[in-house]
Amino acid sequence: MNEPEFHTMLTTLNVAVQSFRDVTLRHGHALAGHRNDGIEVQYVLAGTLRLTIPRQADRLCGQGTLLLLPPGLERVITPADGVDGDRIGPELRIAMGVLTARVSGTFDLLGSVSDPIVSVLPEPLLIQQICGLMIGEAAEPGQGSRALVDALMKVCIVMALRDAVGRAEGDAGLFGALRDPRLGKAIVAVIENPAAPHTVSSLASAASMSRSAFAREFAAKLAMTPMAFVARARLQQGADLLNGTRLPVKMIASNIGFASRSHFSRAFSAAYGADPSSFRRMSAAVAPFPSYSNAGDRS
Q: Which UniProt keywords apply (predicted)?
């Protein structure tokens, strides 16, 4: 991934933590199942984690390893003996949580990704302190806890992505597409200016690819057409403007590249389940800081 594309991905990455806690697993105990509502993050505080995924070889993850598990991934997590046969201890202690991570507010970072991203992070003492602070804030949330936990988690995610970007992890989805320098240029062109008069041909030109090859590669990586990607980026920009400004809906529609208010309203209602005016009213009534789940579970 070229530095400009990587920079754009990171600066527009929005991380929202749904829950965060510490868990201790004794030998003979396991965490099993899967989640469909967000990315699962696991950071190994002590011991060695064994990650079992159907039809894949088990992975042993020692202290200091961060795992990002895509939504819906079936997995079993158990304590294991130490890496290279060295027994670290009878228990596995992990900091774990669930989060959303979206580029430009709408595109799931690990959407369409089937494999976990596994990174050994540098500065383990610093990361342990960050995890401890997040666990404490999640257990007893106060003013600003949501913003603080989200910001600290983004630090960890950025460090993991920086490590993974040079390796063959996360080849599918938006992250995988951004790793392709050709597709990355087209994606960033949309993210930076959704309202521009993008076409498949103009985006293919930005990627220095033929129209047919670009459309094929784009759909294979992101499971959507280039123009569907453009439409989603425009609608997200519209949602942001509805939330953050008092601009009339007609002006917002024009500013984000829709030919008419009615066209924008139909597309917005299909995507968000409410027309723009209703969405604006509902958003104003939503509490800004939902509560976290409690910390300290032991299995």
A: Cytoplasm, DNA-binding, Transcription, Transcription regulation
